[in-house]
Amino acid sequence: MRAAVVGTPDATPVYAEFPDPQQHPDREPLQLVGAGLHHVVRGLASARHYGSNRAFPLVPGIDAVARTRDGRLVYTGLPRSPWGTMAERMVTPFDVELPAGADPLAVAAGMNPGMSGWMPLIARRKEVGALGTVLVLGATGMSGSLAVRAALALGADRVIASGRDHEALERLHGVDVATVPLAHREPAAWAAALGAAVAQAPPALVLDFVWGPVAEAAFAALAGTGPSDDETSDVAYVQIGSLAGTEAALPAALLRSRRIRVTGSGVGSVSKAQMIAEVPEVLARFADGTFDAPYTAYPLSRIGEAWAHQGRTRAVVVPD
Predict the structure, then answer these.
(1) Does residue 16 contact residue 3 with C-beta atoms inside 8 Å?
(2) Among 87, 145, 285, 318, who pairs with 3 as Cys (CB 3.0-4.6 Å)?
(3) Where would you find the membrane-spanning parts of this chain (predicted)?
(4) Sign of the dihedral defined by the CA atoms of residues 55, 267, 139, 183, in that order
């Protein structure tokens, strides 16, 4: 079959022949409709992501919208390495039919980033029954912006959204969303603005898509609210992405002065079964318009152009 093929770490994929995926008696081969080029796809293909098994050559892609033999559109993913979803055919362990009204390429672009925020939000709501105020760091990327919408859809009282894309941040601003622009050239000013927003509406949940120095500023803002003996002021800090850096210093004073729990959310800390169970709910949000994901489609034969794609839209690989 024809597929995008990565020969070595950091190599740009090429359009080439690749062996058909291994057949499974209980799973029919699916035909590609669209596969999103997510940050995690690049990380796995370069062997920089913790989930990489460093086996090459490989076909990139972790999820997709595909077509069954009888013509149904399904969301699917988690193919067995070295096969990925950026190929004409795939064999996967699960599939969920798309609901009416869902744009299949928007689903391909947005399901992975949408799930990254949805899972900790659902976990928190199940744990305590309410979300309260949610702070989203990296809110202007696709994952962060979808997390803002998910938080509101799941009943958050208020969302504090911070990100570096001022135009995208402005689109998020609303009655229940306070925005704090992230200015790399003026980190002290941003930290002060974040501190003021956190003091006005202390978050019960933090979704961090960027980590690094942004997380350190957030820690300082949370610590700056002072000691608290209010049993309802617990803070759950969830680390999801590391676009701003892979390391962040966690101050001892924050751990001692607040009831705070720092955890991560991703493959390994969240089971595949848990994620698959939430797929129908997230698909429904794309169908009813709560979620949307802007995309740019590239034929599989132009995988090199897709790999170089940048901007506010997500590259989606489609059949030729």
Answers:
(1) yes
(2) 87
(3) none
(4) negative
Residue at 228 is within a domain? yes
| 124/7 same-domain check | no
Tally of domains within the chain: 2
Collect all residues with Cβ–Cβ distance below 8 Å to 314 and sequence separation of at least 6: 36, 37, 38, 109, 110, 113, 142, 293, 294, 295, 296
- Secondary structure of residue 170 in the 3-state scheme: helix
Closest CA to 198 of 137, 264, 153: 137
Q: Average pLDDT of the chain?
A: 93
The answer to whether 139 touches 162, Cβ cutoff 8 Å, is yes
Are 129 and 252 contained in the same domain? yes
pTM for this one?
0.94
Interval 247-270: pLDDT, tens: 999 999 899 988 999 999 998 899
Specify if 118 maps to a domain: yes
